[in-house]
Specification:
Blueprint (H helix, E strand, L loop, with lengths): L10 H12 L4 E3 L9 E2 L3 E2 L1 E3 L10
Parallel strand pairs: 1-4
Antiparallel strand pairs: 2-3
Length: about 60
């Protein structure tokens, strides 16, 4: 969570990032555009299921 101080990361978000690190092949279903910024294992993009357009202005 310290890594993303400029992007608000809730405990729930942090848990999803960590779970995506632990479970190979997992995808995160979200409406939260911050997940486009978050990275697993420090530099890997997470597989996201996110609808384009829904997140505009959200957050």
């Amino acid at each position: 969570m310290k890594r993303y101080q400029n992007v608000p990361m809730s405990l729930a978000d942090a848990c999803l990032v960590r779970m995506s690190e632990l479970i190979n092949g997992s995808s995160v279903l979200t409406l939260d555009s911050d997940f486009r910024v978050y990275r697993k294992n420090k530099n890997e993009m997470m597989d996201l299921i996110i609808a384009d357009g829904i997140c505009e202005g959200y957050g």
